[in-house]
Amino acid sequence: MVDFAQAIDPATGGFTETFRGALPEILGDAYYNDPDTKQEPTKAFDDIKDLPGLMKVTLDSRRALSKKMENVIQRPGKDAKPEEIQAYQKQLAKELGAPDKPEDYEFTRPQMPDGVPYDEDLEKTMRQMFAEAGVPKATAKAIYDGYNKMQLEKINKIIQAEQVKYDTEVKELQNDWQGDKMLVNGRVALQALLSFADPDTKKLLADSKLSEHVNDPTAWRKFGVSPYQLRIWHRIGEKMGTAPIVPGSDVPGAKTADERIGGRYKR
Length: 267
Fold this sequence. Notes:
Number of domains: 3
Largest sheet: 2 strands, antiparallel
Distance between the termini: 120 Å
Number of helices: 11
Strand order of the largest sheet: 1-2
Oligomer: single chain
Helix content: 55-70%
């Protein structure tokens, strides 16, 4: 048994060697031995000479721990109420960087390919979902940017595939409709298209000047007609017994028949 009456030297007020020698018995292995090596004696008391010094170290340690705990979000216990758990989750999310409103998320809109609109509704939905789930700003941005990147890659692959398909169809069409066939067959196709077109479509055709460029596949493409569809309209025109369109007769602003030489327009 340690005699604490012999712990302090009456003359100096400091700890006696007897007290220091009794530390292993007082503290036990768990506290006396170094926490890392578990073998060497701790050096925590080497600079503590007396009881006031020990008290100061104890108070400083408690104050430091208390200050550190000020910024610690306490996890609810097992018996915590649902509202306490919800409050904890909300506070934790805020500390991790979750904004207060969906509008506070900062996203970078991708550069969309020509003709492909940006999905405003998707962004709005994602903002709302992130806000309700308490997703931090940085995490939300990484997820949304990653999603957009994947979608753009898919879109670009589709566009590239469509371009390859279009180029192939154009070559095949030009090979099959050589010479005047491209012009004559294009007119038959346009006449067939006009036969089914409503007034608004006819106006669009007139505004597009398609009748002046029926032998140009790119002109048809601007109106949404692919080389394959052009073949179909040509076949429909043939089945209908449609004569090649005379520019100026059904399409406002086109050249008249007497302005044609050898089936081609004057330039």
